[in-house]
C-alpha cells in the first residue's frame, strides 16, 4: 500500500502544472462515467465521456461487431470500473482504467491512443475528435485519472449508451 501511495504522489507531482478544464464534484461515494456514442463509421465509434454528469472528453472505440474480441467495441450497458496500476500491465506504463465483467471479453481498458489502430476493443480518450481520430490522448488520459483520483478513485460505474 505504501508503494501505491508513493506512486500516486509522484504521479501527482508530474501533473502539478496540468489543469482540468472543470472541477467536478460528487455528492455521493460513486464516480459515474457515461459514454454517449454518437458517430459511427466502418473504422470507429466516436463518443463523449461524462463524469458525474459533466462532459469531460471525447472517446474513440472500434465499431460494434457483435462483441468479438479484438475487433469490436463492448456492448452498450452498465459496467464496474477500477483503477489499474502500471505494474499490473505488460504494456501500459501509466495508471489507466479497467472495465470489469464484460461478457465474453477481458482486459477492456481506458487508455491512450488516437486512432482505431491503437485499440483492440478498448476505449481511447482524447481532447477533440473528428472522423476516426481523437486528439491529445495522453493529456486527456492524465486528466481523467487525476479527476478520478481526486473523486476518491473507488466505486466507479460506467454506462455506455447511444446518443
Structural features:
L,D-transpeptidase catalytic domain-like, globular, two-stranded antiparallel sheet, 35% strand, 10 strands, 163 residues, 8-stranded mixed barrel
Quick rundown:
The chain is α+β, with helices and mostly antiparallel strands. The chain is 17% helix and 35% strand.
What does the model show?
The strands form two sheets. Strands 1-2-3-7-6-5-4-10 form an eight-stranded mixed barrel. The protein has a two-stranded antiparallel ribbon with strand order 8-9. The chain is built from two helices and ten strands. It has 163 residues and is α+β, with helices and mostly antiparallel strands. The protein has helices at 2-14, 137-150, and strands spanning 31-40, 45-51, 54-61, 77-84, 96-100, 108-111, 123-126, 129-130, 133-134, 156-162. The longest helix has 14 residues, at 137-150. The chain is globular. It has a single domain (28-162), classed as L,D-transpeptidase catalytic domain-like (Beta Barrel). The N and C termini lie far apart (40 Å).
CA radius of gyration: 15 Å
Low-pLDDT windows of residues: 17-22
Structural class: alpha+beta
Number of helices in the DSSP assignment: 2
Distance between the termini: 40 Å
Overall domain count: 1
Q: Strand count, sense and closure of the main sheet?
A: 8 strands, mixed, barrel
Instruction: Kindly report the spatial arrangement of strands forming the biggest sheet.
Output: 1-2-3-7-6-5-4-10
Which CATH-level-2 architecture? Beta Barrel
Which word captures the global form? globular
Helix and strand string, N-terminal first? HEEEEEEEEEHE
Could you please say which CATH topology applies here? L,D-transpeptidase catalytic domain-like
Q: Report helical residue fraction.
A: 10-25%
* Beta strand count: 10
Mean pLDDT: 88
- The CATH top-level class label: Mainly Beta
How much strand content do the residues show?
A: 25-35%
Amino acid at each position: 500500500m505504501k508503494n501505491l501511495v508513493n506512486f500516486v504522489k509522484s504521479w501527482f507531482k508530474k501533473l502539478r502544472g496540468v489543469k482540468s478544464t472543470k472541477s467536478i464534484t460528487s455528492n455521493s461515494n460513486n464516480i459515474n462515467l457515461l459514454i454517449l456514442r454518437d458517430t459511427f463509421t466502418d473504422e470507429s465509434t466516436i463518443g463523449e465521456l461524462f463524469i458525474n454528469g459533466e462532459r469531460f472528453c471525447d472517446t474513440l472505440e472500434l465499431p460494434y461487431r457483435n462483441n468479438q474480441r479484438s475487433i469490436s467495441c463492448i456492448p452498450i450497458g452498465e459496467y464496474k470500473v477500477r483503477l489499474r496500476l502500471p505494474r499490473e500491465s505488460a504494456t501500459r506504463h501509466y495508471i489507466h482504467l479497467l472495465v470489469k465483467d464484460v461478457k465474453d471479453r477481458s482486459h477492456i481498458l481506458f487508455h491512450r491512443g488516437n486512432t482505431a489502430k491503437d485499440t483492440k476493443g478498448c476505449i481511447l480518450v482524447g481532447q477533440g475528435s473528428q472522423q476516426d481520430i481523437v486528439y491529445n490522448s495522453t493529456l486527456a488520459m492524465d486528466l481523467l485519472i487525476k479527476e478520478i483520483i481526486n473523486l476518491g478513485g473507488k466505486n466507479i460505474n460506467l454506462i455506455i449508451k447511444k446518443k
